[in-house]
Structure formats: C-alpha cells, structure tokens
Amino acid sequence: MRDTGRRSFIQGLAGVSAAGMLGAAWHVRAAQTQAWPARPIKLVVTFPPGGSSDIVARVLAPALAEKLGQSVVIDNKPGAGSSIGAQIVAHSANDGYTLLVSNSAALSIAPSLLQSPGYDPLRSFEHLAYIGAVPTVFAVHPSVPANSLSELVSWIKEQPAPVAFGSGGAASVGHLVGEQFAQTLKLSMEHVPYRGAGPMRADLLSGHIKLAIDALPQNIALHKQGRLKLLALTSPRRVAQAPAVPSVAELGLAQLVSENFVGISAPAGLPRALAERIASAVRQISARPEFAQTLEAQGFVTRDMESKAFTQLIADQHLAWGDIAKKTGAKL
C-alpha cells in the first residue's frame, strides 16, 4: 500500500511538473507571438532574380515592411525545380520570421517529379495568402515563320530534328505545359531547362533557342518592341495586358490552361494568431489599388482569396500536375 501510495504521489508530481512546463512554454510562445516581429522577416524566393515570384517579392517586401514596422529581406534560393527554397522554409522555425513566396512549381509540380522532395505541399506548410496568378505564354523568336499557334505547330512538324523549347527551369509550369503541348499534338520537342527565366530569355532573344514557354509579365515589353512574338496564353481567356494574344482555351486546347499562382506560405505549426496576422497584412496590401495595378501592369492577374481556399487550390493543382507529369513522363 505504501509503495502504491508513493508511486501515485510521484506520478502526481510528475503530472504537475509536466503541466507546469507546458503552461510555461505556452506563455513563452504567446509572448513571442505578441512581440512579433522583433527582427527582420525573410521572404524565400524559389527562383533567381527576375522571375515572376521575385517580381512579387520585390513589390510586396517594402509594403509589408512598412505595415509591420520591421525590415523584410528577400532571399533567392533557386534549384531542383524550386524544391530547395521550399524545403528550407518547410524545415525553418514556425515563428513567422521565414516565409515562402509560394508558387505552382514548388508546391504543385516539383513534389510529383521528385522521389524525395523533403516536404509535403500541404502538411509541411501553412498557406496564408494568395496574391495572384501569372499567365504562361508561348513566345517565339521573330525569325520563326509563325504568327499563330497553329502555324507554330506546322513549323515544328516540318523541322528535321526535335525543336528545343526553353523554360525557367525543370518542374516549372513552362516545362509541364511544353511537355503536355508536345504530347497532345504529337510534336517532336526537347525541353531545355534554364537556371531561371532571365538566362532563358537572353538565349531566346539572341535566337539561340527559337521557342520558350514563359511567364507573361517579363515578355510584354519585348513583344511591344517587336523583339519576340507571343502566340498564345495558357489562361482561360485573354488578359487586358496583352489583348491581342489569344488564350489556348479559345484555340481549342483547354487542356493546356494552367495557373501559375504566387502567394505567401509559412512553415507548418505557425501559431494561429500569427498566421491570421500575416495573412491579414498580405491581403490588405494586395487589396491596395496601387499594389494591384503595379502587378497587373506586368501581366499578373490578382484576386483576393482566403487561406482555406488557397490551400484547396494547391491541393487541386498538386493532383492535376501530378497526373500530367505521369502522362507526359516529365522528369526532374
């Protein structure tokens, strides 16, 4: 009886001690959340400077810094189909100081092309705020004798060797759209992955490659200058920034419609109060007319979306792109 009583007493003390430790940890976490942000916030971009995610980060960072009263720094971590940057964020502390400029490549495509990406697109993150989408465009060098997508198809079929098409990198939306385009129309094409859209675009402008499937924003000015021809957008309809460029949907290729989203995500386990604060800040900034106008002028399509809907969008895209990756045999 005495031993039983002693064990019960010790177990009781252990329970009280554990509860006390948990309570203390909760109070420390709550205090840290209230004090946030006490140091600079890092925005991890999974592409090199000059890409769509980088453009959004550089427009968002100063506005977010002003709103939160703390510096916001951009950290470009490209590589492995955008999985390197995503993996860094997934394994960072969930304290609100490391955020991911999330996108379709990192969360919807790369996990389907890698055996061990090192993160799960849903379980490893809190998806906080959707910012907008970037239409992808079929762009060709002016020397290509094609002024429409159908003429491009005919030209590709006439070539004696596979036609190289460039993209901003393996596992990018441009990569998967190109593979699907080739498979759907039975075209002989070869993917050339670049380390970012900047180097790829330089080769396209010089004529080193003749075709690229790239994000629209960086190509609008080049199209207006006559340095590139834009033949079709992978959006469901035409966009105001390039009204003369048809969508693949109106050309009878609705299966090529794809949305390359950009948003803000954080490591899983971020305290709810902090998640709501960050999401609210980003959504409020996104709702500012000058913010939306800046991005839309560069080809982005912006819209408001709650965190739950944003998470569902990523889940749906992950399934869809995974299916396309299997059908096309795309690899990373």
UniProtKB/TrEMBL annotation:
SUPFAM superfamilies on file? Periplasmic binding protein-like II
What the entry lists under Pfam families is as follows:
TctC (PF03401)
Q: From what superkingdom does this record's organism come?
A: Bacteria
Which family does the entry's similarity section mention?
Belongs to the UPF0065 (bug) family.
Query: Per its record, how is this protein called by name?
Result: ABC transporter substrate-binding protein
